[in-house]
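Hey, can you fold this one?
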Amino acid sequence: MVAKIGRGTNIYGALLYNQIKVLNNNGNILHLHNMKETADGNYTAMQLLSSFAPYLLANKNTEKTALHISLNPNPTDVILDEDYVKIANEYMLKLGYGDQPYVIFKHTDIERSHIHIVSTTVDKNGNKISDSFEKKRSLEICRQIENDYNLTQITEKQQTANEALFRPIDVRKGNIKSQVASVVRYLPKYYRFQTLGSYNALLALFNITVEHIKKEDNGVLKDGLVYFAIDNAGNKSSNPFKSSLFGKHAGLAALKVHFEESKKIDLGIKAKTIQIIIEAMSASSNETALKKYLTQKGINFVTHRNEDGRLFGITFVDHNTRNVFNGSQLGKQFSANAFQEWFSQNKQIYKTVIKRTIPDTKMDTNEISMTKVSEEIHPIFSFMFDASKIIDEIGLIDALLLNTLSEDPEEKNFEFNMKRRRKKIKRK
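Sure. Predicted structure:
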């Protein structure tokens, strides 16, 4: 069992993320520990947040008060819900959070089921709960749980390898080849992209780029791919790595097959992406606002410009449907030229586009409306915000959930009332 521990400043963000899973039938609440329960068993993120209010109000000087833990058993392990609850309670007790309020969510949106636990790092007196040697203690607890519940054993080496997957490249950490390998070996299994340019747009989120190289060898023209690590500005920051170093799935032949397979896509999938883009265009008046809106909806908006600053390409990386689209693949109204005109005029010129751009499909209208309000994205790939700003030991998903997920009006009102109550207590 692999445990991931994340900390941040936004408990509401973590609760909201998990609660959306529940609302979308991709998860459920297994257990509330030392928390207020409702008569009907239904909850909102704000209702769950209220159980943490006394702890947050008592907080003395701890900045990162949110705790978000995921427990991930081996996919081959079959665990009953009641055993998940026992495992979570045992884990939290031994880690030092047995007396804390926390909620246990079970996620079922990917092939392997797993649980998330949301709690707070401060106790009822406002003191921070010690996290000394936490990683070591967590590993020991997981090994004990594996023994007690007859789960598949995972070695520390295997867990370290698992944690290395799907993170943007950080050249400062060294071992660049392994970092690149952990991404390019597996990325095609999760995302569909139809061109090398689309693949590069996706790779750029991991600080990687790929180039198509052609050369003549003894009169025979050979071509292949080479990968590089890149910095935040897109400049190469490593030596080239031949695709053969990473296995056949990272090579040109396999990717060409993947490109063709990715073109076999239902129009309803495109409709989901188009719907969100239309909403973003309707709500935004410039490029910055458009990018921000789209990232909050789980879509990276990637622009490609020449030296003069003119757009020559647009790519949408939709983490909700796990598809990468060039703008023109969605329609001429989403092409680089169309957006260049819009950006240059700095105003919305797409009122006619907004009226009706969605392809004619049999997709249920309820499915589209769910896309409108959904802020969930696949837990492995959480690139809703600039990845370079949230790379740390916590990992991308926790940085997203615990710090920058959402600015909900209810949350803002809650924070405001909390500050007022703190001031009143200090005056007394």
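Residues 161-165, 347-412 have pLDDT under 50 and may be disordered. Let me know if you want another pass with a different chain boundary.
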